[in-house]
Amino acid sequence: MGSVFARAVNDMAEAAFQALYGRWDPLDPAQVADLFSGSSVRWWIVGGRAARVGAVPRGHEDTDVAVCRADLDELRATLSGWHLWEASDGALRPLLPGQPLTEGCDQLWLRRDARHPWRLDIQLDPSDEEWVFRRDPGIRVPWPRAVQAVDGIRYARPEIALLYKGRHDRPKDRADLAAAVLDADARAWLADTLDRLGHHVWAGLARGGAAADQVTDPAQ
């Protein structure tokens, strides 16, 4: 989960979170593909699930999906049978039909209604003609280098997914980096880009530093 809201909820105990917001039962990647089948929305799986494509899997508490912000209207039409909520500035707010998105909001949560669990964490991505890194728009690559299809499911390539994780540097993020399947070009690009962003320790791990091999893969 991204944003100020995500940092706040990540600090909560699971029981406290569920009492306040409700529980999570995330769609798996195949279900996400079914959800967007027939839609023109540009979407792709991000986060730990994308970082682990082709690698040993781990447990995931949610499913993160990126969608081009330019496709927001089509997204809302595609998901008209669901409830969308803005997750922004430390609060959850319903995004009602016909209501404009709050300025600065770049994250939505999805569920059927209040009687059902949250199913998807949607991140509104600024990319359009090519993939653009939100935190540094100077970092951009053509779509074929940023997104891949595996068994009909679109994923951010592992090096793209891992780029977002260097800032957090949690145990599960290091485990994802250690497990990721990266060819030489992808590894070099990731390391150089992490250096550009100032994440020098992670850049060293991406280049194959010894510490990456010592990470214990967490259950979550």
Roughly how many Å apart are the termini?
A: 14 Å
If helices are DSSP runs of H or I spanning 4 or more residues, what is the number of helices? 10
The CATH architecture can be given as 2-Layer Sandwich
Radius of gyration: 17 Å
- How would you state the average pLDDT, rounded? 89
Task: Tell me the name of the CATH class.
Answer: Alpha Beta
User: How much of the residues is beta strand, in percent?
Assistant: 15-25%
SSE series: HHHEHEHEEEEEEHEEHHHH
**What overall form do the CA principal axes indicate?**
globular
Secondary-structure-based class equals alpha+beta
Order of strands, widest sheet? 1-2-6-5-3-4
**Low-confidence runs:** 210-220
Biggest beta-sheet profile: 6 strands, mixed
Helix content: 25-40%
Q: In the CATH scheme, what's the topology name?
A: Beta Polymerase, domain 2
Number of domains: 1
Overall strand count: 10
Describe the structure.
The protein has one domain (3-158): 2-Layer Sandwich (Beta Polymerase, domain 2). The protein is of the alpha+beta class. The longest helix has 13 residues, at 184-196. 34% of the residues lie in helices and 20% in strands. Mean pLDDT is 89; it is low at 210-220.
Nutshell version of this structure?
Helices cover 34% and strands 20% of the residues. The chain is built from ten helices and ten strands.
